[in-house]
Amino acid sequence: MEEIIMFSEASAKAGITYPKGFLAAGVKAGLKKSGNPDVALIYTEKEAAVAGTFTKNAVAAAPVGVSKKVVATHTAHAIVANSGCANACTGAQGEEDAAAMQQITADALGCTAQDVVVASTGIIGKLLPMDKVKLGIHAAAHALSPNGSPDAGNAILTTDTYSKAGTATVVLGGMEVRLGIIAKGSGMIRPDMATVLCFITTDADIDALLLQEALSEVMEHSLNMISIDGDMSTNDMAIILANGAAGNPKIAEKNADYEAFKGVLLALCQGISEKIAADGEGATKFLTIHVVGARSFADAKTVGMSVANSPLVKTAFFGEDPNWGRVICAVGYAGVPMDPERTTVKFGGIPVYAGGVGVPYDAEALHAVMSGHDIVIEIDLNEGDVEAKVWTCDFSYEYVKINGEYHT
Amino acid sequence: MEEIIMFSEASAKAGITYPKGFLAAGVKAGLKKSGNPDVALIYTEKEAAVAGTFTKNAVAAAPVGVSKKVVATHTAHAIVANSGCANACTGAQGEEDAAAMQQITADALGCTAQDVVVASTGIIGKLLPMDKVKLGIHAAAHALSPNGSPDAGNAILTTDTYSKAGTATVVLGGMEVRLGIIAKGSGMIRPDMATVLCFITTDADIDALLLQEALSEVMEHSLNMISIDGDMSTNDMAIILANGAAGNPKIAEKNADYEAFKGVLLALCQGISEKIAADGEGATKFLTIHVVGARSFADAKTVGMSVANSPLVKTAFFGEDPNWGRVICAVGYAGVPMDPERTTVKFGGIPVYAGGVGVPYDAEALHAVMSGHDIVIEIDLNEGDVEAKVWTCDFSYEYVKINGEYHT
């Protein structure tokens, strides 16, 4: 059996409860003004190896510190997450509240506090209404279900317009190993405070340190390649739980099974990254910046991010304007060695810039590219043979509306 | 007599023709669809020391290369500039055209081509219509006048909503020394391709190398502190001509006169920087990010730029939302050592964040600050005693409109 990665409707429904032994729930605890679900719970009765990557922002939210300690123990049984309040910039009270979320969850599930990962997303600077959170966690614990992934996925959303989830299957040592993922993106436009939460479950049996290494490497090539840069928010977090229920030969070294597992994890996380970018706040276009011919991955990523973060590029694509001048300009100031004469730019496969000047193009064909929803901007630096893809979206009136509205 | 720096209406009118011996003109050559003035000329019959700073973008426009060579000769007689076409990404033809602009100007004024600085701003990737440019330069040469500064100032504008100009006076060695400035900002919102052109004239007598040193240092604390970052466009250029007509004792070493001259040049350039930031594309607010308590100027600038470049901060101010969470988040990801507990944030002098949490504030007083046009965001890192100011503007629907409209 080949590995299978899916982002179909059925797959989204299965999500994090697709791997064996995982239950999930999402409930309405009243943390959001909208009344939408806002407390999510993921649980594995069988102890799971845990790994995580976290925001590098010096202003990190309380749950980030709490969850880092859980990951340091290498095992966990549950993830509790809330939306509507980030529990960031909340001082000592915020730390107490994050610890209380752990304890309440542990008590409800019959595990220890150190078995519970905590995540929050929402407004910065507000304290969690702990009475509501407590009731919400209890309700979620009662609602835990092998079909609970969609509810959990919905309960972590903020300004996302739809829930993101997927599943994957890979055969390791003759045993079917399953992976499931849910994530939220959010607003965004550039590496900023848009919080990304990403929860991955798998029934693979894998050593916790190898799990961490695989996750860290995969994140560099998936969530960290969105222009909602994972390491910038106060609350960003990606967590994977591996409970070993698949019964595969335990992955305890970097063998073929490790590589196969990492490969399918990468594909799953890249798929969810595309979905997050496409659902950026106010987005009307999904843009893939494909940089090729770079000397290093770092160079390729830097160029891709420079283009992806340019408001002038993003507004041009919103306006369906094939303004290659803004693209090559953003390449030029990226700070990576490049020769304007050797660099080429294509929109949707159509050359628009080469040899230091614009390339004549078929206006009708290019118009068809620019008026589409998914657009690939290919930049060939002709400096080496390394490539990278950065995913982003355009910049619309709606973005300004969403973020310019007074919502403290 | 004290030094005097002015940005009044009278001062704007005097501008670059305020110092002795300078003439200027601005004419309509038909380069802009709007029919607005688009060719500017500045001339000093008396040879001037020249200094300049240029874009650091790897994709630099043709006139940048041409003008760097002029500055390398240390003397010049004229500056010719056009708007409506950037002459960037125009290959060998673009270089020929920039050189032709020099030669046409030199012929019209009776100097040599190497005496003429060339600058362009406008659309990238289009060739200059040289027949129109030639007629424009001839017309401008005929129109040169001691009252020509406003015309020249208007002829370099692109999406600016008003012309920026100022004057300054300082007494050196008993002689009155005058300085004049015109500049264009442009769109823009973050270090990007928005072209800044800044032309400064002075009748000071000063050695060209010292003039360059003074200009370079001043730019670091003025134009490079706008979030329209000077070194990012394909065409950015700041040029100063010093013709010595004031008759002051020649500044040939770093004496008190040098310091006084540099001080007044700094004040003049900071004043014009504020005007450029306040006229950002679609701006409804002028924001000063005042970072204090930093360990170094570089740290203070990095923090200020991180806040100034955050679309989430900028849209919050557009919405008059005192969202300090977005500000402290941008401080946190700036990459500069900072302690969330020690950092404080004030909006218009009103504390909003301290000790790691939000500070209760008088809502009415803060509303008055947020609804004003000029807002100071003060960030105290409490790490050292260095400060820096970064100037920017908010981010509005109008920005998206201006840049999302198809205008190739």
From TrEMBL, chains A, B:
<feature type="binding site">
    <location>
        <position position="403"/>
    </location>
    <ligand>
        <name>substrate</name>
    </ligand>
</feature>
<feature type="site" description="Involved in the stabilization of negative charge on the oxyanion by the formation of the oxyanion hole">
    <location>
        <position position="121"/>
    </location>
</feature>
<comment type="pathway">
    <text>Amino-acid biosynthesis; L-arginine biosynthesis; N(2)-acetyl-L-ornithine from L-glutamate: step 1/4.</text>
</comment>
<feature type="binding site">
    <location>
        <position position="195"/>
    </location>
    <ligand>
        <name>substrate</name>
    </ligand>
</feature>
<dbReference type="InterPro" id="IPR016117">
    <property type="entry name" value="ArgJ-like_dom_sf"/>
</dbReference>
<dbReference type="InterPro" id="IPR002813">
    <property type="entry name" value="Arg_biosynth_ArgJ"/>
</dbReference>
<protein>
    <recommendedName>
        <fullName>Arginine biosynthesis bifunctional protein ArgJ</fullName>
        <ecNumber>2.3.1.35</ecNumber>
        <ecNumber>2.3.1.1</ecNumber>
    </recommendedName>
</protein>
<feature type="binding site">
    <location>
        <position position="281"/>
    </location>
    <ligand>
        <name>substrate</name>
    </ligand>
</feature>
<keyword id="KW-0963">Cytoplasm</keyword>
<feature type="site" description="Involved in the stabilization of negative charge on the oxyanion by the formation of the oxyanion hole">
    <location>
        <position position="122"/>
    </location>
</feature>
<dbReference type="Pfam" id="PF01960">
    <property type="entry name" value="ArgJ"/>
</dbReference>
<comment type="subunit">
    <text>Heterotetramer of two alpha and two beta chains.</text>
</comment>
<dbReference type="GO" id="GO:0005737">
    <property type="term" value="C:cytoplasm"/>
</dbReference>
<keyword id="KW-0028">Amino-acid biosynthesis</keyword>
<dbReference type="GO" id="GO:0004358">
    <property type="term" value="F:L-glutamate N-acetyltransferase activity, acting on acetyl-L-ornithine as donor"/>
</dbReference>
<comment type="function">
    <text>Catalyzes two activities which are involved in the cyclic version of arginine biosynthesis: the synthesis of N-acetylglutamate from glutamate and acetyl-CoA as the acetyl donor, and of ornithine by transacetylation between N(2)-acetylornithine and glutamate.</text>
</comment>
<keyword id="KW-0511">Multifunctional enzyme</keyword>
<dbReference type="GO" id="GO:0006526">
    <property type="term" value="P:L-arginine biosynthetic process"/>
</dbReference>
<feature type="site" description="Cleavage; by autolysis">
    <location>
        <begin position="194"/>
        <end position="195"/>
    </location>
</feature>
<dbReference type="GO" id="GO:0004042">
    <property type="term" value="F:L-glutamate N-acetyltransferase activity"/>
</dbReference>
<comment type="pathway">
    <text>Amino-acid biosynthesis; L-arginine biosynthesis; L-ornithine and N-acetyl-L-glutamate from L-glutamate and N(2)-acetyl-L-ornithine (cyclic): step 1/1.</text>
</comment>
<keyword id="KW-0808">Transferase</keyword>
<keyword id="KW-0068">Autocatalytic cleavage</keyword>
<dbReference type="GO" id="GO:0006592">
    <property type="term" value="P:ornithine biosynthetic process"/>
</dbReference>
<feature type="active site" description="Nucleophile">
    <location>
        <position position="195"/>
    </location>
</feature>
<feature type="binding site">
    <location>
        <position position="184"/>
    </location>
    <ligand>
        <name>substrate</name>
    </ligand>
</feature>
<feature type="binding site">
    <location>
        <position position="408"/>
    </location>
    <ligand>
        <name>substrate</name>
    </ligand>
</feature>
<keyword id="KW-0012">Acyltransferase</keyword>
<feature type="binding site">
    <location>
        <position position="158"/>
    </location>
    <ligand>
        <name>substrate</name>
    </ligand>
</feature>
<dbReference type="InterPro" id="IPR042195">
    <property type="entry name" value="ArgJ_beta_C"/>
</dbReference>
<comment type="similarity">
    <text>Belongs to the ArgJ family.</text>
</comment>
<keyword id="KW-0055">Arginine biosynthesis</keyword>
